[in-house]
Amino acid sequence: MGDDRLEDTMHKMTLRGTPAQMGQQHGSLIGKLNIQLPPTSPEMQVLANDCEQLCLQHTPELVEEMQAFAAAANLPYDSFKQMMLTIALQQNIPSCSVVAVMPERTADGKLMVGRNYDFVYNIAWDTATTYTTYPANGHKHMGSCDIWIGREDGMNDAGLFAAMSATFVPGIAPGIPFWFIVRHILEHFTSVDEAVEWIQTIPHSQSRNYMLADANKAVVVEATVNGCYIREPEDGILVMTNHPAHPTLAAQKPFKPDDSPIRYDRLRAFPDANITLNDMQTALNDRENHVCAHSAVYGDAFGTIWSAIAYPADKRLDIAQGTGHDEGTMTYQSYTI
Predict the structure, then answer these.
(1) Strand, helix or coil at 218?
(2) Residues forming beta bridges with residue 141, ordered by sequence position
(3) ∠ Cα 66 58 141 (to 5°)
């Protein structure tokens, strides 16, 4: 698809059953596309093996699904595993803006979260998919991702929302990839407190931010290979972009190119009170301040792939596809989880 906007809407897929059943269902569809996996290396295979052992301890259902997917898609498991567990460790692309507005600041008195997922068009356009997932032993959830097994954001039937954003605090180690972390949270927890307790106990393979929100509470977890740092709302607003904002991490040298502080400040600049859905949509569509991304990073066309607005109290998730090079406004479709 290259740099052009998708002609069709984002892919949609429903998965049901045990991890093995969902992996088989999904992998059999992907296998028809003759996927070519990225090149492998002995060094990354060692790291992938170490990550797999940790995933077996902390997210075993996703390892089972990964194994069934590879078998059904007729993909060599070691190569597929290396891609699934280590490919993000080789990326340094800034991406994603997320904001939570607490009930005391919204017009309807309900917590609201807005999120844009940004990435390189020629990687993410063709694979961006909204999944509705019915795990046999977990919570139903709806969320989007541009890699098959995990999720990069979503909300479950308990009204728990989770989303990630990139940060680049130094460090790579055997650990759980961020898309497994978001997926596990959606399938297994019902509240921010439960998710925070778990995310602080697991090994992280790299630094990433996580916005967690339920009907009454929102936090950002700034996770690194050396530990997690929790931020709470300030004046009823909580924002995460791509630079570390927790005082313990804020001195870290930012990456370049860097519009992360500009996006951060824009998402803090809501009206003082009575913030509406229209206010949120306007903020997420803001190209002037780069919240709705549309640029080039390291020579590749880059932009907002999808956007989501969550109302945890209503278990409602609004999802829009990004507009690519078009100057149009993202249009949201509402779903009830």
Answers:
(1) strand
(2) 133, 156
(3) 65
Q: Evaluate whether 94 touches 108 at the Cβ level (below 8 Å).
A: no
The full length of the chain comes to 337
Strand partners, 251: none
**Confidence category of residue 5, pLDDT binned at 50, 70, 90:** very low
Q: Are 123 and 298 in contact (CB under 8 A)?
A: no
SS3 state of residue 101:
strand
How buried is 3 (Cβ within 10 angstroms: 0-12 exposed, 13-18 middle, 19+ buried)?
A: middle
* Six-digit token string for 48: 């992938």
Q: What residue type is 114 in one-letter code?
A: G
Per-residue burial over 116-150, b = 16 or more CB atoms within 10 Å of its CB, e = otherwise: bbbbbbebbbebbbbbbbebeebbbbbbbbbbbbb
- pLDDT (tens digit per residue) in 7-18: 456 899 999 999
C-alpha–C-alpha distance, residues 33 and 127, integer Å: 12
Res 2 pLDDT > 70? no
8 Å CB contact between 158 and 313: no
Q: What are phi and psi for residue 124, nearest 5 degrees?
A: -100, -25
Q: HSE (CB half, 13 Å, CA atoms) of 194?
A: 14
How confident is the model over 42-46, as a mean pLDDT? Answer: 94
Rounded CA separation 296/287 (Å): 14
Q: Minimal CA–CA distance to 126: which of 334, 329, 324?
A: 324
Task: Say how far apart CA 315 and CA 107 lie, in whole Å.
Answer: 18
- Structure tokens given for 84: 């699934």
Q: Which helix (H) or strand (E) holds 145?
A: strand 141-145
Q: Tokens for 30, please give them.
A: 């992907």
Instruction: Provide the pLDDT confidence category of residue 4 given band limits of 50, 70 and 90.
Output: very low
Which among 295, 320, 310, 291 has a CA at the least distance from the CA of 100? 310
Tokens linked to 87: 């490919």
